[in-house]
């Protein structure tokens, strides 16, 4: 009997089909695709799931606006999204839609079971509801409130900036509170359940410690959703419906649950940071209440942002993947997205960076390595690879060692979905091989007939390196590996990663094709302009105007300060100060220093930073600041105080001797620059 392959189940979030997907949403799908391809090449039996989250008020309203039935609207959008995934060569094994009949039925069963066993109960819900966010907010969570003359709150804005309205409705609630302790223990026993680790701390400090509230899981205010079987004026609210997709897609709650038996629990749910909470609190509790095992890892990735912050249509800084793929090819697009996003943190897209990475990494480093190698094999050996014989150069051992180190490191990093680092590792081999050409100087060897064997050894070493590189980039770039091995005349060779080794190179005496560059060099100016022109033009102007206004204001402020007796500073001086949003992840007293507190902050970088501040007097219990989003001066020269390093300054406001840390609204993300 054939040996059973180990299974691997990976999922993306299911996307709201409320608009065209941009490179930000596409990132998650490409990242999961790279992981799925990697695991397949490592010999796993992979199940890769993606899909669409099609219910809810927002979709209902959107369809109405377009004069369509909700079903018609989501059909059209789901088709569009499937088309996009085809273009990006996503290798998902299934595409689930929450309007699929089997899913709706399974959700009803799940709901009924939770109701029957007392985990769901009926109550009343009052809250500020944002239609756009499909989320309720408490008054204190609102970013802005409107009041009447008597000071009563009559409306406001959600942290996203969307309007909210007061809604009171009968609702079913999930008893989340009952499971809070269990979940806390589960986290303790499974320290790698949430990655990166900092997100687990965030969940504990911001949600579990303050106490979990029961979650409203049905609505009566709209129709477009799965009906509660025993009380059909209620529709199951989006998170129970949406989260269940990960199991219903495998047949849980349906007649044939063989896939569920085979693949559950999932190995990885990959999600963006703003939905980590739903996946690491509500979802585990739901599964536990259903008596099901939990997914092994929830990986929260950062956002792909633009220089002026979050990608959004209203800001006019949106880039669609089609724009990049049509002009620069799929490989360049996938490479860029995975290379630009550091694990767990935000990545910034800029047209300049995109063009640079394509030019440096792909056209120069990898492209040239291939072109030079193919050209030399053609020129010096009539297009034939003739094996190594016994000749060697002084540089062979180091190249071979680099290759084997890179293979090992790469596998480890890919296993942990650290794509940017895995690619950086592969490029170590690209650089090493380029250097090997300079060291061995084949053009000198070619002049000396007695060095023929050495030259042949050099050519084979280069071909081997390229073969290894081709194998390693397969999960990320669907086309280049094939083009590389074709040009080297070693098409059809085994590129599986399970047992990839430098000296297993299969080819001898192969004919090398005449090479054409697989990554043409881009004209920086023209292409930066092109990409910029694709970002919604009029909105871009708005951005510039806002920036100009902000600078003008800063200048005015500087002027005003003059009258304050302070020396005014020029705008370019102010511009040198790097202000950033950060989130306090830990706060403590500094031993032996009455005034000093030390804070650990998430500043958008993986390691975060420590900042000391002399505000102990006003914060005798500094833990009240944990979770707060604050402003820091990020480029202050680090200095030591009482043996502790302070890497920046925390901004506080002061009046009449009272000091308060300046906090910022919750929709700002650690690492954002402040202008
Ligand atoms: N429907 C919910 C998920 C339910 S899963 C049970 C949802 N959908 S979404 O369409 O709004 O977002 C889907 C994913 O796209 C999220 O993981 C989100 O973080 C990701 N992204 C949206 N914009 C993004 C960037 N700019 N950058 C990276 N990922 C981004 O939430």
From TrEMBL:
EC code: 6.1.1.10
Superkingdom, taxonomy of origin: Bacteria
Pfam families in the record: Anticodon_1, tRNA-synt_1g, tRNA_bind
Entry GO MF terms: ATP binding; methionine-tRNA ligase activity; tRNA binding
Residue window of motif 'KMSKS' region: 310-314
Matching SUPFAM superfamilies: Anticodon-binding domain of a subclass of class I aminoacyl-tRNA synthetases, Nucleic acid-binding proteins, Nucleotidylyl transferase
Major subcellular site: cytoplasm
CDD domains: Anticodon_Ia_Met, MetRS_core, tRNA_bind_EcMetRS_like
GO cellular component: cytoplasm
Alphabetized UniProt keyword annotations: Aminoacyl-tRNA synthetase, ATP-binding, Cytoplasm, Ligase, Nucleotide-binding, Protein biosynthesis, RNA-binding, tRNA-binding
Record's catalysed reaction(s): tRNA(Met) + L-methionine + ATP = L-methionyl-tRNA(Met) + AMP + diphosphate
Domain TRNA-binding: 573-675
Gene3D superfamilies, per database record: 2.170.220.10, HUPs (3.40.50.620), Isoleucyl-tRNA Synthetase, Domain 1 (1.10.730.10), Nucleic acid-binding proteins (2.40.50.140)
Motif ('HIGH' region): 15-25
The UniProt record lists the keyword Cytoplasm: yes
Residues making up the signal peptide according to the UniProt record: none
Compartment(s) where it occurs, according to its Swiss-Prot or TrEMBL record: Cytoplasm
Broad class of enzyme this protein falls into: ligase
Function statement: Is required not only for elongation of protein synthesis but also for the initiation of all mRNA translation through initiator tRNA(fMet) aminoacylation.
Assigned protein family: Belongs to the class-I aminoacyl-tRNA synthetase family. MetG type 2B subfamily.
The name this protein goes by in its record: Methionine--tRNA ligase
Species name: Limosilactobacillus reuteri MM4-1A
Gene: metG
């Amino acid at each position: 009997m054939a040996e059973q392959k180990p299974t691997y189940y990976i999922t993306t979030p299911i996307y709201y089909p409320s608009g065209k997907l941009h490179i930000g949403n596409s990132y998650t799908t490409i990242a999961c695709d790279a992981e799925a391809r990697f695991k397949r090449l490592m010999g796993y039996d992979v199940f890769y799931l993606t899909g669409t989250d099609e219910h809810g008020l927002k979709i209902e309203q959107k369809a109405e606006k377009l004069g369509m039935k909700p079903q018609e609207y989501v059909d059209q959008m789901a088709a569009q999204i499937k088309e996009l995934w085809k273009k990006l060569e996503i290798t998902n094994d299934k595409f689930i839609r929450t309007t699929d009949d089997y899913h709706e039925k399974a959700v009803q069963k799940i709901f009924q079971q939770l109701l029957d066993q007392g985990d769901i109960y009926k109550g009343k819900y009052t809250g500020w509801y944002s239609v756009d966010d499909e989320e309720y907010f408490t008054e204190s969570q609102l970013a802005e409130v409107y009041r009447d003359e008597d000071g009563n709150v009559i409306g406001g804005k959600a942290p996203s900036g969307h309007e909210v309205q007061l809604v009171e409705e009968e609702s079913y609630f999930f008893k989340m509170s009952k499971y809070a302790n269990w979940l806390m223990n589960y986290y303790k026993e499974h320290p790698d359940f949430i990655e990166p680790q900092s997100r687990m701390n965030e969940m504990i400090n911001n949600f579990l410690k303050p106490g979990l509230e029961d979650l409203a899981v049905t609505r009566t205010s709209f129709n477009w959703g799965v009906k509660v079987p025993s009380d059909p004026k209620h529709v199951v609210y989006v998170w129970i419906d949406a989260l269940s997709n990960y199991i219903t897609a495998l047949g849980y709650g349906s007649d044939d649950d063989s896939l569920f038996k085979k693949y559950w629990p999932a190995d990885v749910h990959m999600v963006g940071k703003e939905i980590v909470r739903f996946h690491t609190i509500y979802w585990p509790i739901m599964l536990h209440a259903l008596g099901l095992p939990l997914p092994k890892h929830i990986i929260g990735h950062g956002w792909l942002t633009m220089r002026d912050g979050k990608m959004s249509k209203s800001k006019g800084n949106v880039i669609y993947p089609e724009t990049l793929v049509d002009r620069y090819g799929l490989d360049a697009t996938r490479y860029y997205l995975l290379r630009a996003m550091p694990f767990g943190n935000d990545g910034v897209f800029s047209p300049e960076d995109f063009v640079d990475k394509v030019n440096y990494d792909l056209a120069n480093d990898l492209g040239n390595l291939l072109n030079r190698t193919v050209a030399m094999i053609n020129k010096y050996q009539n297009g034939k690879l003739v094996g190594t014989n016994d000749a060697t150069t002084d540089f062979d051992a180091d190249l071979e060692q680099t290759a084997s180190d890179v293979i090992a490191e790469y596998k480890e990093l890919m296993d942990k979905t650290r794509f940017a680092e895995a690619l950086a590792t592969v490029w170590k081999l690209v650089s090493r091989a380029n250097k090997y050409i300079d060291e061995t100087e084949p053009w000198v060897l070619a002049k000396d007939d007695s060095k023929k064997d050495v030259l042949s050894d050099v050519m084979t070493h280069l071909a081997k390196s390229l073969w290894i590189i081709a194998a390693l980039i397969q999960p990320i770039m669907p086309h280049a590996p094939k083009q590389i091995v074709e040009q080297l005349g070693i098409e059809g060779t085994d590129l599986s990663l399970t047992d990839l080794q430098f000296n297993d190179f299969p080819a001898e005496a192969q004919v090398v094709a005449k090479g054409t560059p697989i990554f043409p060099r881009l004209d920086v100016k023209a292409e930066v302009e092109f990409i910029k022109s694709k970002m919604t033009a009029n909105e871009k102007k708005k951005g510039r105007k806002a920036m100009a206004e902000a600078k003008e204001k800063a200048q005015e402020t500087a002027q005003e300060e003059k009258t304050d007796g302070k020396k005014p500073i020029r705008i370019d001086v102010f511009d040198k100060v790097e202000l950033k949003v950060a989130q306090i992840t830990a706060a403590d007293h500094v031993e032996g220093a009455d005034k000093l507190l030390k804070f650990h902050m998430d500043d958008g970088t993986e390691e975060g930073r420590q900042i000391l501040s002399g505000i102990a007097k006003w914060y005798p219990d500094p833990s009240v600041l944990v979770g707060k989003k604050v402003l820091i001066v990020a480029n202050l020269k680090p200095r030591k105080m009482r043996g502790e390093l302070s890497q920046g300054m925390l901004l506080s406001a002061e009046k009449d001797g009272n000091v308060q840390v300046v906090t910022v609204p919750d929709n700002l993300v650690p690492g954002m620059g402040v202008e």
